């Protein structure tokens, strides 16, 4: 169901993101990359996987931020939607893009120094299994950065939720012609565990939480984790 949904909106996904979030989604990805790179042990070259990479925005941001730090990288993207990957192919030709599911990641144990998942975890059909897989393919001591949406009880968070619930399905529907996809987005945020609860899910799989940070206007958050205690 999720794969069909993203296949149907792939060609207009980026435009919808930019307009709906007023470009804030780029800012959240940028900050996520910066925090993730700060948490990594010093290295000249690293291997990076972006799970649920979609149209490749996170990979593009990762390459830019690594370049600024003089670190070279091998970049991999995994996604279950072939249409999202088609768009990504043009935007991130430097990355190796692989079709597949987070619940069965097609890489060996301990392959990556850094894994990112932006707005993907909420969509996984079997989150527990996907978390185990993320743990498996990360190197011991490696960093996992999860960027997601959630509801925040602050006044700003409530305003942002009001906008998300009322405006996003209308604007998203107009841009992509698929209002259902954006109604699903709102519903999935409503059902998703709060960040502290999500952190506990990762911790029970063996991760330790390095940081939990809300981004303006308190509708998106970063959960930064390390493999191991
Ligand atoms: C909201 S988009 C996020 C895309 C991208 N990470 C970004 O920041 O724009 C969610 C993506 O997750 C992918 N996805 C959903 N469930 C998945 C799963 N179980 N395994 C792999 N990819 C999945 C979808 O195909 C879609 O491209």
Could you explain how this protein is built, in words?
Methyltransferase required for the conversion of demethylmenaquinol (DMKH2) to menaquinol (MKH2). Pathway: Quinol/quinone metabolism; menaquinone biosynthesis; menaquinol from 1,4-dihydroxy-2-naphthoate: step 2/2. Belongs to the class I-like SAM-binding methyltransferase superfamily. MenG/UbiE family. The chain is an alpha/beta fold. The chain has a single domain, classed as Vaccinia Virus protein VP39 (Rossmann fold, 3-Layer(aba) Sandwich). The protein has ten helices and seven strands. Strands 3-2-1-4-5-7-6 form a seven-stranded mixed sheet, with helices on both faces. α4 links the parallel β1 (45-51) and β2. The model has no long low-confidence stretch (mean pLDDT 97). It binds S-adenosylmethionine. S-adenosylmethionine is lined by residues 2-3, 6, 52-54, 57-58, 78-81, 84, 101-103, 118-120, 123-125.
